[in-house]
Design goal:
Elements (H helix, E strand, L loop, with lengths): L4 H13 L2 H13 L12 H17 L1 H10 L7 H6 L8 H14 L2 H13 L1 H6 L5 H5 L8 H8 L6 H14 L14
Helix pairs in contact: 1-2, 3-4, 3-11, 6-7, 7-10
Amino acid sequence: MGYVQGMGFITAIFLIYMDEESSFYMLHCLMKKYKLEGLYYEGFPDLKKKCYVFLNLQKKYVNSVYKIFQREGIIPTMYLSSWFISLFARTLDFHIVLRVYDCFFLEGFKVIYRIALAILKLNETIFCKTKKGEVLPLIYKCHENLDVEELFKVAFGFNMSRNFIDKCEDEFEKVKNDTNNEFMTQLCW
């Protein structure tokens, strides 16, 4: 595995709090213990899987936004790539990212799904009122000016089970070459 752009944002946060060697080992730990290396391999194989899982979660928990994005032809990689590869370090305010990372080290990637869903949920009304063709620019700004307490309240309000996530990941392995699958049609890149 080589350097991928999102790694720099994560490493920069580590470097604020620790020396270079410790930061390197933290990044190594993310890749191995938290199994993030597939997000950074050539072709981003785990990014596609995580987007597939997210689509299942989005349809289940924020269905109105799912339908709007589907209607608008907005595919998850248009916004999730940046969110997932940098673990939100590129998009969220610094004080929010620190809280996200604290939760991530306890809960794993599940918290990244929670935060992504919460961002969409907190902007659900705006997305629903937006005219056709004007949704995509809003996605790139929907994470701005978030209240950290409200974000985490919404994020941890989703009754999300690890079993459901595991089921979606297993399903992805079975359908990843199925061009007729509802979610796979939204994951082309």
